[in-house]
Design goal:
heterodimer, A: about 240 residues, mainly alpha, B: about 300 residues, alpha/beta, Rossmann fold, 2 domains, 11 helices
């Protein structure tokens, strides 16, 4: 697993050495500020918590994570560097995991930069810090789920735009499936079992559960299995690209 | 030793490589030739484990590439077609990355990096991002990463493609200077390169081998083999008497004063031509015997297969 570390380091450095990461971080921070303070009415709520922030973060990820993941593999394929990687004496899985981890840690860094919100609520009042920490952990896990799916779609195509759109659509559906608009669509004709299944598939449901401050094993397992599945599928897609 | 047996690759209905077999022994520099689309790159990708064969096998130093790709890749250095690289990395960071992935560490990595950097003359661009380098430098970075672990087997897909004549010369010199017990396979469609570099040539066309021999042997198959090029200082009426010589087959008049004389089957016409020149007292400016032209053989072999 030594290889994972080397790949991880290279990928993480490539985020820092290209303007992409800075741009992404700035957009992420600006948007999360707008969502929290304007749309979330952070001050008007008069409550010392970060709900205004956590309510919008899934939507923020829906748009931003696909932009981050679209290049993961699609770029390697279109520039041909994938041939270089896959002829180095390291199994494809190591590359996939290293890239995923680097992106995930990078997103952890982006999330960490929003902690001034956290300091602010502590300055203004007396929030439930445990719940906020849980919210951050939930956000990070959710980001991991998005990343794993994005990495999979990126490995499925050479075209970064296609990777972006596929990831965006699937992530959007996964977040929205817990919301009334989607639920209403199913409730008209589908049995309750299907309705529950659709709701259970929702990123938002599981994220909400964690960010309320209850880290339930089922919710962690949900994101964990999406990550494992996504990374596994990516490794297979990468291997398949190679053999063709 | 590289052993390739009945190697095949199908992409859907398209047969890219159809059952090729050859061996390459240590110390050999094998020139892998063929027109574009003949299956050169696909074959090299199968040797390096990037593409899975549809049939047949490749073994490198006794390691089956399909069974143990990583083990085989450890002892190979590979320059993929077009030398793809990470543009945003500096040369130093990129070579360090490849070296570490290949298991080099600390002092050993530093020493190997210094060696390959000197070998391909990259000293002055080490801290530059690769994307800012010229094509020639990029190709050299590609070569450096293939050499970093001092591999026993080197697979180079068109190492001089797109380089200017000076750069081509440098790359060839580098390949020639590699240690003598290495196996080197280079693909190219530049025939002068084969003459300059390769101890053996395999020509493929439409996914099949059409020739496997030394460049010299191959040249003897040329129509120009043993042909005599003759240039007089002035335009004589030489054509009829040259054509009349029994040792000479065809005569081609190149320009007013130059002729190309093809040998009649199994004849060596030099002596007869010499005598004729003497008896007529013709003034000769240039006379040489052609050893045969590879491009001529290449064209014939690959057109026949088409």
């Amino acid at each position: 697993m030594n290889g994972v570390g080397i790949v991880f380091k290279r990928e993480l450095l490539s985020y820092v050495s290209t303007s992409l990461a800075y741009l992404f971080t700035v957009i992420f921070l600006v948007l999360s500020g707008i969502f929290t303070f304007y749309l979330g009415h952070f001050f008007e709520r008069g409550q010392a918590d970060l709900e205004a922030f956590f309510n919008y973060i899934p939507w923020l990820f829906v748009v931003l994570v696909p932009a981050l993941t679209m290049r993961l593999w699609a770029e390697e394929r279109s520039t041909g560097t994938i041939e270089l990687l896959l002829t180095l004496p390291v199994p494809p899985f190591v590359w996939v995991l290293g890239k995923f981890m680097a992106a995930w840690v990078y997103l952890a860094g982006a999330l960490a930069l929003t902690t001034p919100f956290w300091f602010t609520v502590n300055y203004l009042g007396d929030p439930d810090n445990g719940a906020i920490l849980a919210g951050y952990i939930g956000s990070w896990f959710m980001a991991g789920g998005f990343l794993a799916l994005g990495s999979m779609f990126s490995a499925a195509t050479k075209n970064q735009v296609i990777a972006f759109i596929l990831t965006l659509v699937v992530c959007f559906l996964l977040v929205a499936s817990g919301f009334p608009m989607v639920q209403d669509f199913f409730s008209a004709w589908a049995p309750n079992g299907v309705l529950d299944l659709v709701a259970d598939l929702s990123f938002f449901r599981h994220f909400e559960a964690i960010s309320r401050g209850v880290i339930d094993l089922r919710d962690v397992l949900y994101f964990g299995s999406i990550i494992v599945l996504g990374v596994w599928a990516t490794a297979h897609l990468v291997k398949r690209t190679a053999s063709n | 030793m590289i052993k390739i047996q009945n190697l095949e690759k199908k992409y859907g209905d398209i047969q890219a490589v159809s059952g090729i077999s050859f061996d390459v022994a240590p110390g050999e520099v094998l020139g892998f030739l063929g027109p574009n689309g003949a299956g050169k790159t696909t074959t090299m990708r199968m040797i390096t484990g990037y593409v899975q064969p549809s049939g047949g096998s490749v073994s490198v130093m006794g390691i089956d590439v399909a069974q143990a790709p990583q083990q085989a890749q450890k002892i190979m250095g590979y320059l993929p077609e077009g030398a793809p690289l990470y543009g945003e990395m500096t040369v130093a960071a990129f070579l360090g990355f490849v070296g570490r992935v290949r298991g080099l560490r600390g002092a050993q990595l530093k020493q190997r990096m210094e060696q390959v950097v000197a070998q391909v003359s990259l000293q002055h661009v080490m801290q530059q991002p690769i994307e800012t380098l010229s094509k020639g430098f990029k190709r050299r970075v590609g070569l450096a990463q293939a050499l970093i672990h001092d591999p026993q087997v080197l697979i180079l897909d068109e190492p001089t493609d797109g380089l200017d004549p000076n750069q081509k010369h440098e790359v060839r010199k580098l390949i020639q200077n590699l240690s003598k017990d290495k196996i080197v396979v280079i693909s190219t469609h530049i025939l002068e390169e084969v003459d300059a570099l390769c101890s053996r040539v395999v020509i493929i066309s439409k996914g099949r081998i059409v020739a496997n021999s030394t460049p010299t042997e191959l040249a003897t198959q040329s129509r120009f083999h043993k042909a005599i090029f003759l240039r007089f200082s002035q335009a004589y009426e030489a054509l009829p008497s040259l054509e009349a010589l029994p040792e000479v087959g065809d005569v081609e008049q190149v320009d007013d004063a130059s002729y190309l004389l093809f040998a009649a089957p199994d004849k060596a016409p030099l002596h007869a031509v010499n005598q004729l020149i003497h008896s007529r007292n013709w003034d000769v400016e240039e006379l040489h015997i052609e050893r045969g032209r590879l491009d001529d053989v290449f064209r014939r072999l690959t057109m026949e297969a088409a």
